[in-house]
Design goal:
homodimer; about 325 residues; alpha/beta; Isopropylmalate Dehydrogenase; 2 domains; eleven-stranded mixed beta sheet; 12 helices; phosphate:acyl-[acyl carrier protein] acyltransferase activity (chains A, B); Phosphate acyltransferase (chains A, B); phospholipid biosynthesis (chains A, B); acyltransferase (chains A, B)
Chain lengths: ~325, ~325
């Protein structure tokens, strides 16, 4: 039985989408027990309205909530919050992993203080899984913003951790690793990039492909992209914004006149296909890689579908025992 | 008469698209004289094939070319290259501005060595003009990659220079300035961002709007985005790649079956509208802001349309006398 703590508080849309995602997941996964962490009364009130409610859950009552604007200090200030409790369940091994839709800053700080980092890993990194234009292919991207600054050694560690993740969870035998940079030549970028390039290249166990430019992020030409947290966050959000805004422009342009609306109607399914492919809701989760626990952050505005996707990722990481594999490798080599 | 030096060598597609763009521009602008800089024989050979060729051009024969992979050292190594000659024409005021589709690295180095920076400007920045989803609205973005690192003072200088550019060339009375960062709160980012935030905020002459996240880059919510060259390059290319790849996916999805191809055919014009709006060819040019001369770089893979758009930008910058205005302001305040 895999046990997952689910902090259902603190995200934008309230606890109902989170609980619904959990119940839906339980219906399809009989090897999972979920610990809903949050306001017991509110959780029970909602559960009472659900017909044929699955039973393999527990409720961990927590009186406090860290809101979306919560910061590092809230981890100390609110020891009875759902986020802190969920992380503690991971710490004391009551569960195998956790997820939350709450504040990223508080989540990162909490994971750091409560769980601690692996030996041999300087800084953990946020790693989302992104769709690419290649059918059934995704790309792992880290750090997406757990840090504002990273050393060359951090980037090298990211590559090693992500490689094991890709092998274990995505069943890629020899995942290609690329370094995000402003040009393909090895001389490009800042000192940190040139140093990281050498570290990555020297490790024969990594399938290092060299530098990659940001315009290739979703072209499917690589499996893992490593970068510092500042650039990573900028790159991901630039891409997210571009995709969202382009879809918006297309919608406006195609419905400007009746003569367009009619053929557009026939293409509704096709547009839905494209929309689904690049919908963040299907890729809402990011693991914080490098701390002692399987801990996932779901997008702050996650709905039931988004939480469902993050729950699936949490489950897959637990099932693959990815953490133990990474930990062993990192500690042996450090 | 506005005089423009056009380095027609060194770009990906050869000199014909460059020359054609120049001739087309001359046909529509009788107040312009173009100095085609490059291999005279090759230029003349092409001109001989053009019917009703406009006459208001000169050819500056240069025996050397700096290729797309050219670097900083080539400026010294190839003093008789078209790029160096075009920059020298600006330097000795034989022309009012120049453009090139050649190597960015050589162009930046050449502009630096030959023209020098303004007093009061630490580092010049590359500034492209980007479309947004708002009708007839563009956003100025710098530095897009002239530097790999920038100080808070650099970012502040960028904001001041771009504000005058927006006022002069885009006729925006009080252009909104935003700082690219990983979150909206003023505490976000690295030291350089927090310092830049304070500098920008303290200057009452700037219409500073605070931090902006990369997902808002083309949403039209601001007029000028300042950032360091590394993040700026990553952000722009991430956006460029996302737009290009999404259009590709849409095309594939819409032409998968005959039943889709037919309604898609009716929407061809609509798609073209969207495609044109976000086509880099209409925004291929970037000014290097902060050096003593109106100098534009066009995308390395520029075709006639792209060169035409960069030529138009060069013309507008010269016509608005934007450089003198920026120079005066920067030197007075430094």
């Amino acid at each position: 039985m895999h046990k997952i703590a689910f902090d259902v508080m603190g995200s934008d849309k309230g606890l109902i989408p989170a609980i619904n995602a959990g119940l839906h997941f339980l219906q399809n996964h009989h090897d999972v027990e979920i610990f809903f962490v949050g306001n017991q009364k509110a959780i029970e009130n909602h559960l009472a309205t659900v017909p044929n409610c699955p039973k393999n859950y527990q409720i961990i009552d927590t009186p406090e909530v860290i809101g979306m604007d919560g910061g590092i200090m809230d981890i100390r200030r609110k020891p009875d919050s759902s986020l802190v409790k969920a992380l503690e369940l991971v710490k004391n091994k009551s569960v195998d992993g956790m997820l939350t839709g709450g504040s990223s800053a508080a989540f990162i700080a909490g994971a750091h203080f409560i769980l601690g980092e692996f030996e041999g890993v300087g800084k953990p990194g946020f790693m989302p899984t992104w769709p690419t234009i290649v059918e059934n292919h995704t790309v792992l991207f880290l750090d997406a913003g757990a840090n504002t600054d990273n050393s060359a050694q951090d980037l090298y560690n990211f590559a090693k951790m992500a490689t094991i993740y890709a092998q274990t969870v995505l069943h890629q035998e020899r995942p290609r690793v690329s370094l995000l940079n402003i040009g393909e030549e090895k001389s490009k970028g800042k000192d940190v990039h040139r140093e990281a390039y050498e570290l990555l290249k020297a490790d024969q166990k990594l399938n290092f492909q060299g530098n990659i430019e940001a315009r290739e992020m979703i072209s499917g030409s690589t499996d893992i992209i490593v970068t510092d947290g500042f650039s990573g966050n900028i790159a991901l959000k630039a891409m997210e914004g571009a995709l969202k805004n382009l879809m918006k422009v297309i919608k406006t342009t195609l419905t400007k006149s009746l003569i367009r609306k009619i053929p557009a109607l026939f293409l509704k399914k096709a547009f839905k296909e494209v929309g689904t492919k690049f919908d963040y809701k299907n890729y809402a989760g990011a693991i914080l890689l490098g701390v002692n626990g399987v801990v996932f952050k779901s997008h702050g505005s996650s709905d039931e579908q988004a939480f469902g996707s993050t729950l699936r990722m949490t489950y897959e990481a637990i099932q693959g025992d990815v953490l133990a594999k990474i930990k062993t490798k990192m500690e042996v080599e450090s």
